[in-house]
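tool=predict chain=A
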Amino acid sequence: MKIIYLLNKGTMNIHELSENLDKPVSTIAAHVKVLEDSGLILTELRPATRGAMKVCARNFDDIHIQLNAIKDQAKDNKYYELEMPIGQYVDFFVAPTCGIANHDGLIIPEDEPVHFYSPVRANAQLIWTRKGYFEYKFPIAIPEETKINELQISLEICSEAPNYDHNWPSDITVWLNGVDIGTWTSPGDYGDRPGKLNSLAWSETTSTQYGVLKTWKVTHHKTTIDDIHLSDIKINDLNLLDHQFLTFRIGIKDDSVHKGGFNLFGREFGDHPQDIKLKITCNQK
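tool=predict ok
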């Protein structure tokens, strides 16, 4: 736990952790191996004065552990799940810096918004813009007599800075069926190490490399992000069964305090092998 707390301040190598915790390097290395194997931290070997050093970084903003099962959860819950590729947006507004890339590199000219209409966007694994939004439509193929209990949207995301900058806040808002469900401030744009899924060619650039996996959840009581209260918007406010699709928009408001843009990651880019994932929990009325 002390190692995790230290990594909240930024990356550290094994020797720095050893000095801060007043423990032998061998002891710290053993604990780092446990944290690395569990996926709680990420490590990277970098050149040092003598040989190489292992640099450690935190992998998550928050971790929530549920120790007790929810006793009153209905046993007949059904789940509707769908992943939407990040390039399948149906509407957008972007402004430089903006672009679309895949494993081979840029697939449209950078900072030219008109090319976001190009059909090659279907191959996108990374899209970014300094301001504006992307909008998607998810079909909802569930019976009308269904009661929806919970809706989740998850994706990998970060801010959009020139090259990258870990201290680059951005106020990112999500709308569902036109309803503003809340704004989350992304801390920065990450590029100090290659993303786990990135190609060697992209890993050698000074561009954005990875993001953080965020989950928005709407229930009958509230809206949360990573199980932390975000707003008082409830499932019934979204009128989900009035349409055969869910409109999902993510973007930067014109009056945001921090207009730091955003990057969206596809399933073959960054750290997490998924696109924009929708999950609806429901049961029969």
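The chain has a mean pLDDT of 91. The chain has four helices and 18 strands.
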